[in-house]
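This week, look over our next protein:
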Amino acid sequence: MMKNVDLIFDILDEAALIYYDNLKLDYLTALTEINKNLNFDEYDTKLSDEVIKKLEELYKPFMENNFLNEEIRLALELYTVKGLKHNNYPPATMIPDFINYLYVLIIKKLFDYGISLLDTNLGTANLLATINNHFDYELNLVGIEEDPLLLNYASAFMSLQQIPIKIYYQNILTKILDVVDVVVGEFRSFVIDDDLKIDNELYKQNIRYFPYLVIASRLENIRDDGYFIHIVDNDFFKHQDFSTFNNYLQKYGYIAGIIMLPKEVVKKEIGKSIIIGKKTQHKNDVLIVEMSGVSKEQVADATQKINLMIEKIKEE
């Protein structure tokens, strides 16, 4: 597999450099043009015939090989790391695969049928692509992204893997009408401005902590007995407004499980966790799994505990 991943990355990387040399496109924007070339045989009219011919020759191995979606995604991960650095985005803009595969584990354990999935903070779309490439049933994918560059990048990222997705270009807190089985996403911990006009019950109660507001905004998009699965900083549980948030949440559901992530993965002093919330009126104790490290034995032990946790959550 890695031989193909390296080949795909080399093709994408060289094409991006051609676009930079000829059109001065940044690395992330170049992927949109590369996707147009590969999927629609469309080329920017400002490119010379010589450059187009060079690109067509470069793309031949991609067009002639039947690469797996996961091979393309892994190559795009390498491309994304370089692109985020080139465009001065923090590396944390893309969720690491260690966490992506935990999402795969959780969702495959929760569902043995087709589902709808919303990423409320889409970013590069790597999380949804990872889930899609490892899930055995049909997925209906939806994303929300407010950064136009990342939105276009995510669209190309998915298109190159032939993964259908509906993407909303809007503020993360703005309402949408879709009803889904699961809402996922990663939230940074910060307090939003007082002067924003947000139709949100928690906001009306003077709650300004961003993760609480997003979860509250998306509850109406989750079907009954559906889930929200989010990556949060561990101050999520210690914020002064947690009690108010939790009281509001319990009108609809509750946080059923917490997976405390190893520091080697999150590389943040405060730490991060994956919270698993369920939209249900049947509430039980919160189940907690603490991942002690990333060695093979530690991951195997944590995987067994997570599987048991999910089984109990499904029964609630």
Summary: The longest strand covers residues 222-233. The chain has a mean pLDDT of 94. The two ends are 40 Å apart (CA to CA).
